Amino acid sequence: MKFEVRPGGVNTIATDAVITGVFEGDAGQVGAVGELDAALGGIIGDLISSGEVKGKLYEMHVLHTLGKIPSRLAIVAGMGKQAEWDTDKLRGFAGEVVRVLRKHKAKSAAFALRAGNEGGPGHADFSCAVVEGCLLGDYQYKRHMTRDENGHEIGEILLLENDQAVLEAMVKGLEMGRITAGAVMMARDMVNEPANHMTPANMAEIAREVASRHHLGIIVMDRAQMEKEKMGALLGVAQGTSEPPNFIVLDYRGDSAKKEVVGLVGKGLTFDSGGISLKSHEFMSDMKGDMAGGAAVIAAMDAIAQMKLAVNVTALIPATENLPGGRALKPGDVLKASNGKTIEVVNTDAEGRLILADALSYAVKNGLSPIVDLATLTGACHVALGDIYAGLFSNDRGLAERLIKAADKGGEKLWQLPMPEEYRDLNKSDIADIKNSGGRYGGAITAALFLQEFTGETPWAHIDIAGPFMTDKTRGVLVKGATGYGVRTLIRFISGLSER
Ligand code: BES
Ligand code: MN
Ligand code: ZN
Predict the structure, then answer these.
(1) Which of 279, 349, 373, 429 to mutate to test the pocket of ligand 1 (most atoms within 8 A of CB)?
(2) CB distance 342 to ligand 1 below 6 Å
(3) CA 346 to centroid of ligand 2, rounded, Å
(4) Is CATH 3.40.50.300 the right assignment for the domain spanning 193-499?
(5) The pTM is what?
(6) How far, in Å, is the centroid of ligand 3 from the Cα of 381?
């Protein structure tokens, strides 16, 4: 899908489909809709007055133009209430539109919405959102289909804009949108990939490709190197599988004048069976996506490097399977993490915090700051916040605020949860420094408190993405399956730091 900003009007441009939008209560007589209505003999006005076109958000009407304008189809799409229109709604709007284009076999289309005049997003944000929406809404995962019955491709999308003065901003937005959506799709591909195709070795291979594309530093540690680093918690989880684990380190250096190096940590559990504390078979296949945090971090690094952001970032991805093999961890075992702390494993299914314990210790030891980790960590967070909100935990107010702002700009939902002192006792063990489960209540919180034992005083934030890493509904920019959650937030967060 190619994107271009071009001058022109709905009645003169020749594409397969022109796209216009109406708000609730619009009479359809102004701007591009008005022009189109005139060319089509007043049909849009009719549809509105008869109540067929209501302008409800994402409501779609496809009109065949029968030669009255050069484009075969005219789409009149609902934008909802004008006062509620914003960049995120626009992004979702483009996602909905692109699926209509596909359904109607359009190979090219032109958006005739204006950035400024709806009181919504500015020009760069506008074009960025349209590109993100189109690419993400059109995303399909078909790698393992040997036959493709619906192989329709949309070749070209135009954004109609006659004001030369805003062209540069719009073209910049297109580029940001293309890079961002590319990274989100890369993360989606990794998460959708079944566990037999996305092993720790496959993750490392993808990280190597990112590194060689953009000249990043990369280290992939194997079992022996992890032993040297005394990563007993990660190695403990990796005991139960014969699939070799990896600890992936990716280095991007975008500003040699800055001393500070930001740490991004992503859980790379390529399949979580629960281990000896085996999960029930229902939904177990979803656990191929337990590496969604790691995927988001690798994909964000790809985008950060492409955008040449003026920051230094190191990404850490502990990658392994969690299986109940003959050498697997047993409930009651005690492990020693690389920062020297001992952990009683009361539940082998609470493995995410174990592998993160060693990754966070490594981040602290190497002076990374701030540290942000992403992990499909707890079912409890999914229960608490549902499918669209990720949970945020932090020991640093400013960092939390910056992440929430970044999520908001990126179109992802993030909600901060507390880390009360009072709950720390729940993680106390009778025989070791700490145990790996604080029980049923406040499960997302006790998991975050566990992680905090490994971050020391370093400014740190933990994002629990167990809710939004997958979706079972196609809507807006989301398509059933992996969402690529976190990529957009991380890109905006790092790009915000680069401007400081
Ligand atoms: N990967 C899971 C959490 C998860 C569940 C993510 C569902 C996405 C969807 C994690 O490793 C896990 O099993 N957590 C346990 C922790 C418990 C044993 C303390 C959980 O949430 O049940
Ligand atoms: Mn688990
Ligand atoms: Zn897990």
Answers:
(1) 349
(2) no
(3) 12
(4) no
(5) 0.98
(6) 13
Distances in whole angstroms, Cα of residue 155 to Cα of each of 94, 103, 142, 264, 349: 15, 14, 18, 35, 45
| Percentage above 70 pLDDT, the chain | 99
For the annotated catalytic residues, the residue numbers are 279, 353
Element (H, E) at 344: strand 342-344
Rounded (10°) CA dihedral 398, 399, 402, 408:
-120
Q: Domain 2-144+153-180, what architecture? A: 3-Layer(aba) Sandwich (3.40)
Q: Any bridge partners for residue 177, and if so which?
A: none
Residue 352 Cβ < 6 Å to ligand 1: yes
Q: Which residue ranges make up each domain of the chain?
A: 2-144+153-180, 193-499
Which atom from ligand 1 is nearest to the alpha carbon of 322?
11
| d(C-alpha 168, C-alpha 188), whole Å | 30
Q: With contact defined as beta carbons under 8 Å apart, do 188 and 292 qualify?
A: no
Q: What is the mean pLDDT of residues 164-192?
A: 97
Q: Is residue 382 lining ligand 1, measured as CB closer than 6 Å?
A: yes
Cβ burial, residue 213 (10 Å; 0-12/13-18/19+): exposed
Rg (CA), the chain: 24
Q: For residue 56, count CB atoms less than 10 angstroms from its CB and return exposed for 0-12, middle for 13-18, buried for 19 or more.
A: middle
Span 212-232, average pLDDT: 98
C-alpha 269/C-alpha 451 separation (Å) is 16
